[in-house]
Model the fold of this input.
Amino acid sequence: MFHDKVVLITGASSGIGAACAVAFAKSSASLTLVGRNSDNLNKVAKQCEKLNQLQPLTIVADITLETDLERITEETVNRYGKIDVLINNAGVNSISPTITPAEAFDTVMTTNLRGTYLLTSKITPYLAKTKGNIVNISSILSNKPLPMMTPYCMSKAALDMFTKCTALQLSPKGVRVNAVNPGPVKTELFRRGGMSDVDCERMFLGIEMNSPLKKITKGEDVAELVTFLASDRASCINGSCYVIDCGLLLGDASNL
Ligand SMILES: NC(=O)c1ccc[n+]([C@@H]2O[C@H](COP(=O)([O-])OP(=O)(O)OC[C@H]3O[C@@H](n4cnc5c(N)ncnc54)[C@H](OP(=O)(O)O)[C@@H]3O)[C@@H](O)[C@H]2O)c1
Done:
C-alpha cells in the first residue's frame, strides 16, 4: 500500500510510534524513524527491515531542539528525495495531583505542541510536492478533562485544533491532515510521566473493567487506523479527529 512512499514517524522508538513503524513497514513503506533512545530506535528499525527488506533511516533527535528538526528534514530529503507522510507521534505526559510545576508544563508543551508545530512547518513544503498527508497522534484526553494531567490534556486539545487549522491551510496544496485520538494504551507514557508501576497496573485494570468492550486499545490497533488515514483509501478524510478507545469515552451505561 505504501510502496515508493516515504513515511516519517516521530517517537518511533517506543509504544504507539514503534507499532506504527512496524505497520508501515508491513505495507512496504520507506521509513524515517525518529527518537531519542538510539538502542530502542535501532531495535525497531531492525524489526521493520526484517518485514520489507528496506533499511529505515534512523535519526536520533530531540524534537524540542530546532537544530534537530532541521536535521530530521535534511537527512530524510537527502536519503529519499521526498516525503509523503508525516506521523507526529512523539509525546510526553506529566502526572501530578497538584498544579504541575512550570518545568514539567514546559516539557509537555514544547514536546507535544511546539516541536510538532515546528517540524510540521519544516516538512510541509515537501508534502505539498507529493500531495502527501499528516497524521497527528492526539488523545481522548483532548476532549476529556483529567486534572492530574492538565498540561497533557491542554496540549492534546490544542493538537486537535492544530489538526483542523492545518487541514484548512494545506487543503489548497492537496495535503490532508488528520488526527487519531487513542484511549489508554499500555506503553511507557504513564511511567515516564511519573506514575508508579503499581498505579499503572491498577489504572489499566480499572480501565479494562470499565471499558464497554472490556478490553484496552493496543498500539497495533492505533497503527491500523493511522495507516488507513495515511493511505489513498482515506482521500476524502481531512481535518478529522478519530477516537479509538474501545468505547471508553461513552462512559458506563450501568451508571445511568
Ligand atoms: N499510551 C497512551 O495511553 C496514549 C493514549 C493517547 C495518546 N497517546 C500518544 O501517543 C504518542 C506516543 O506515546 P506512547 O504512548 O507510545 O508513549 P511512549 O512509549 O513513552 O513513547 C513516546 C515516544 O515519543 C518519543 N519522544 C518523547 N519526547 C521526545 C522528544 N523530545 N524528541 C523526540 N522523541 C520524543 C519517545 O522517544 P524516546 O523513547 O526515544 O525518548 C518515544 O519514542 C504520544 O503523543 C502520546 O501522547 C498515548
